[in-house]
């Protein structure tokens, strides 16, 4: 196969893949921009997090988006949410939310999701 | 072979003079007698009931209560040959070494000896309860593929432990000692088992240093006397205390009660329901955690053994966190509400775990109680049909015991998250919840494991019996059974009290000689 043919094939594949991604974009729910999107981007599903956030806010009466982000942002700068949540559990940084024992980072990001939910 | 003897057929006023009288024909009394059957000594078992349940006999156990709601005193035990083994669930698990230790955070704790003293007797006790080969916490090593696996937990203070069950060989119920060992009792030429023989008094000699005789009565009005060289009270933690307190004709406080300890420190295992909700992200819990799972391990030593996995705090964790013992059981599948589902989805996605097949279960628990001298049996004013004063039980259940257990649940929840296995919801936050559950059907149960009323301690001011089970100050009166447990652990008592009884049998061989 000639080099030109291979490059043409790869180019076509990129276009198809890009097109598919573009077509799927509307399926991913969009939210109004917030100053915390870098943190919230760690959530696969903000809606479920926001639902849990109702109870999380009740469990953390002193919570504000600003102090929540101040807690999470430096940690999420180094690691993703999976790692941060796991480290919370390992280090016994748990919050009780409506009886549920959850990693502190989960409670905070859920409260944040609820706080900025439209 | 000798038939069982019916005390109602004895001529009024008869006097019997065995070497050893055992008051009570339950697991402790039967096992003690059989352990001594090959000695040259004559042994009399005085069982207050017959071979079968009889409501009139059972009514002798009625009593009064105050304090916390507790099982009516005539319902949590059985007055018949085999005693309360006739309704036990067969749960067996050895006490843990820490249960024997004096714990600074548990006032009045500690046995006069460690678990090493009982260990030589565990194999025979295990054989008596027919719970299969001794495995318990080694079971995980013996599991076959068909058994499933234990819940994966992150490193920490809670681990999967195991019950074994009496009895193992395809029977539908646990070992009922009267049925199971009746033929052995009858075949023992020096053991006489008297049924319907209610002991109503332990009469001390005038010097108050030894038991002179036992007064025995039947419901049809017969009275007779037993003058044994030695006596063992093996009638359960309630009746042992009742007999000692009621036998107050020579010493006003009762037999062995010179330090006002008899009847105090009553304990049981409270069983609050639905204490937590366990969610396993990947779905169904292993059958190991359900009732009486028939182990499928290919190893021959495990053949037919019934087991159940439970979640227990490690001894190290108990020691570091100053906890009490507990055995947490997986109970029933439950459906989560939307708030619970949101908690699970949000947590699972944060951990990067798929929880789409997640399943929730309620958890139950059997708890160790803090020893409390005010949780006690005393004599009530009313008398039963044999003329014995009835018992009155004052039950206490402090909030603090529940809060200590909550720490174990919190640790379990943490370990579930740290292993990405699941998560936990704490269902109760006040005393009312622990005691009464979420619905009327979910009230706290009790194990009917009567403990502690004739506690063991080397110091007569702190215990009713010494390390050999001998009542302080009396040369020829001993106590067998869980009434001597000074601290309780969370394990079910039957197999443990049998080990202690077999140890007492060895001691009696020397003192009877």
What shape does the CA trace of chain B take? elongated
Taking the sheet with the most strands of chain A, its summary is: 2 strands, antiparallel
The total count of strands of chain A amounts to: 2
Helix/sheet category of chain A:
mainly alpha
The largest contact between protein chains, plus residue counts on each side, is: A-B, 32 and 26 residues
How far from one another are the termini of chain A?
Answer: 55 Å
Low-pLDDT stretches of chain A: 7-26
Number of helical regions of chain A: 6
Radius of gyration of chain A: 19 Å
**Spatial ordering of strands, largest sheet of chain B:** 1-8-4-3-12-23
Strands of chain B, total number: 23
| Estimated helix fraction of chain B | 10-25%
Return Rg of chain B in Å.
24 Å
Count the DSSP helices of chain B. 12
- CATH architecture grouping of the largest domain in chain B: 3-Layer(bba) Sandwich
What would you say this structure looks like, in words?
The complex is a heterodimer of chains A (118) and B (513). Chain A is mainly alpha-helical. Chain A has two domains: 1-29; 31-115, no CATH class. Chain A has helices spanning 3-24, 37-40, 46-59, 65-78, 81-90, 104-115, and strands at residues 94-97, 100-103. In chain A, strands 1-2 form a two-stranded antiparallel sheet. Chain B has 513 residues and is an alpha/beta fold. Helices cover 23% and strands 22% of the residues of chain B. In chain B, the strands form six sheets. A six-stranded parallel β-sheet of chain B has the order 1-8-4-3-12-23, covered by helices on one side. A four-stranded mixed β-sheet of chain B has the order 2-11-10-9. Chain B has a four-stranded antiparallel β-sheet with strand order 6-7-16-15. Chain B is elongated and about 80 Å long. Classes of the chains: A mainly alpha (118), B alpha/beta (513).
